[in-house]
Amino acid sequence: TQLSQILRLVQQAQGAKPAENLWAERLASRFVIIMFSVTVLAYAFWWQVDPDKAFVVALAVLVAACPCALSLAVPAAVSSAFDALARSGVLVLSPDALSRLKDIDHVVFDKTGTLTTGQAHLKDMRTFNGCSEREALQLAYGMELGSKHPLAHAFQAEGLQPSVFDALSVVPGHGIQARDGGQDYRLGKAGFAAKEQPDTGIWLSRNNLLLAHFTLEDPIKADALACIENLRGQSMHCHLLSGDSLAHVQQVAGSLGLHNYRARVDPEGKMQYLQALQQAGGKVLMIGDGINDAPVLAQADVSMAMGSGAYVAQSNADILLMNSKLSQIGHVLSVAAHMRHLMRQNLRWAIAYNVLAVGVALSGLIHPGFAALGMAGSSLLVTLNALRIYRIKP
């Protein structure tokens, strides 16, 4: 099921550690080695000065130097960020995804199901060569439903039963091909289903014989414009790549103020577009939902997939927007920035505390019990500071 597939992705993500966690662990392990050496030297020094205090001072140094706060500084911030996002309907599937967001300067959107609702409705249809409207709708509905495409409901009508086919396959970036007996059906753009016809809408053919032409209307999401304006406010360049016709893409791009857009782009074309941005030094965030988007989601520096999209897209994404809301993108960016801020704060505090605590312990002015309390308090402070990330609301 879709839920079990998503849970599998989350479990895979939980089995890996972010690069920051590994870096913090290496820092803590080296710190421990240094502190053991300092403890030995402290014992040797106090043995010469006051043998009765040598063991107590060495123990105080060892306890004060415990790198608990240092080890917790990064993981506490990361885990709090992941949990805060999960509570708002965002699953982070790649451990390093939030850290990589800081370098993003290009955001590339898919259109259908991403910038638009994916809840398209049939605006107009024409039939040819003796095909009735009901027959055309049954064929189109059956092909779209069998491919699990979000546009399937656009062909649904009251009392309409979808056609059932012997074999059905999706041709990414082009359309759907189905076979029933000796009949070959195609549904998709003109170059795939109805050659030499205008490149508008969706065409249906049987054995290269034209059956119908559909014009669909897919509303733009209510939060799309605010999302793009928010990204522009953070100095990010927004792009639109779609396999839809030029007229529909221009309409959406015009409504959202997007100047960088491409229509009738197949998966290879999307990949080339992304690679060109990356070769020019750009860091790309790709946002999509369909099977066609899977290759570019994997190619992007960071990728987000819609929870309502195809599983193959979700499995190639770094971040999953379960509610499929574009407003969640800004929330992810805010949480990621705050996570990095908290990590720096925690590391500065942990290092400052350890240096200060070890210095006081070396002087012989602190009992090991008080050193233990300081160590526990430092760890608690780092953890509580990481929890401040929950203040950021979607």
| Stretches with pLDDT under 50, minimum 5 residues | none
How many distinct helices?
A: 15
State the helical fraction.
40-55%
Q: What is the first-to-last residue Cα distance?
A: 28 Å
Report the mean per-residue pLDDT as an integer: 85
Structural class: alpha/beta
Order of helices and strands: HHHHEHEHEHEEEHEEHEHEHEHEHEHH
Would you report the number of β strands?
A: 13
Major sheet, described briefly? 7 strands, mixed
Radius of gyration, CA atoms, in whole angstroms:
29 Å
Strand order of the main beta sheet, please? 1-13-12-11-2-9-10
Shape label: elongated
- Strand residue content: 15-25%
What would your notes on this structure say?
The protein has 394 residues and is α/β, with parallel strands linked by helices. It has helices spanning 2-14, 19-49, 51-64, 68-87, 97-100, 111-115, 133-146, 190-193, 224-233, 246-256, 267-279, 294-299, 311-315, 327-362, 368-386, and strands spanning 90-92, 106-109, 121-127, 167-171, 175-180, 183-188, 202-206, 209-217, 237-241, 260-262, 284-288, 302-306, 319-321. Strand 4 and strand 5 form a beta hairpin. The chain starts with a helix and ends in an 8-residue tail after the last helix. 42% of the residues are buried. The model has no long low-confidence stretch (mean pLDDT 85).
